[in-house]
Amino acid sequence: MSYPLGFPPEQPLVTVTHPSATTWLLEMHNGDDSRFTEKFINKAMMPALDAVERHWRENWRAARAAKDKEGGKGTLIIVGKRTQNKFFSNGLDYDNLVKDPNFHTNFFPLVFNPLIRRLFTFPIPTVAAINGHCFAAAFGLAICCDYRVMTDGSTRNAWMCMNEVHFGAGWPLSFVGIFRAKVSDNRVLRKIALEGHRFTPAEALDAGLVDHLVKGDTAAVIAKARQVGESVSGMTYAGAWGVIKRDLYRDAVETSERTVLQASVLSEDAAAKARL
């Protein structure tokens, strides 16, 4: 397979490189802040993940056939646009997505939730290289990864935040599943969901939302993410990494498969008005 790979090929929003025999690097570059759209997820993120898994499985099968226990290793790093140090991702392109009258019924069950399941059960270790602000759905995507490495904010500010409560949007059920699966402290969960707290890198580390902080630019964040991913890349040889994750996060995976109409502030108010 020849790298780099761009998705979609005609105007890439995601680029995959293969910097070492055991590492794949997925760079999101839908503009500087890599907002999530249907095209970005279905035409870029999902096929990029497919390409990485396909190549890793080819290596894994060859290593098993040769009884090579040093082969078949792998890790995936996900990073925001590499030529800037401000954004990992700003989350959904919400203002444009909500113009679709079917947004609440279609986008999450048909577009975003499959991406969640893909990451939760990905067969090799995944590391989010958080090189800047990480908001809303991007926060959820990062939490779906197995490890998180974040800039320490010394170069420029960087926050993690689920900010829906600030602009009057409810959470889809899949978001609830993500954070329940990965955040065990109810006080932290309350700050994330109900207060929309902007976690500084130091706060995110203290709360267990990230595993490592890195001083420096995007290149430094990627370097540390690679170190973290490669340190566990050998766990994939037996092929059990993704299988165990599927059961470990079964509740979140099954929650994301449930099609539940997302309540809006206005629909909730209308229901309350009729009831009270």
Please give a structural write-up.
This protein has 276 residues and is of the alpha/beta class. It has a single domain, classed as 2-enoyl-CoA Hydratase, Chain A, domain 1. Helices cover 44% and strands 15% of the residues. It has helices spanning 38-65, 94-97, 103-120, 137-144, 173-182, 186-193, 201-206, 218-231, 241-248, 250-256, 265-275, and strands at 5-7, 14-20, 23-28, 75-79, 87-89, 126-130, 133-135, 147-151, 160-161, 212-214. Strands 1-2-3-4-6-8-10 form a seven-stranded mixed beta sheet, sandwiched between helices. A hairpin with a 6-residue loop joins β1 and β2. α1 runs parallel beside α3 (103-120), α4 (137-144) packs across α5 (173-182) and α5 runs antiparallel to α10. It is globular, with a radius of gyration of 19 Å. The mean pLDDT is 93. InterPro entries: ClpP/crotonase-like_dom_sf, Enoyl-CoA_hyd/isom_CS, Enoyl-CoA_hydra/iso. This is ClpP/crotonase-like domain-containing protein. Belongs to the enoyl-CoA hydratase/isomerase family. Pfam families: ECH_1.
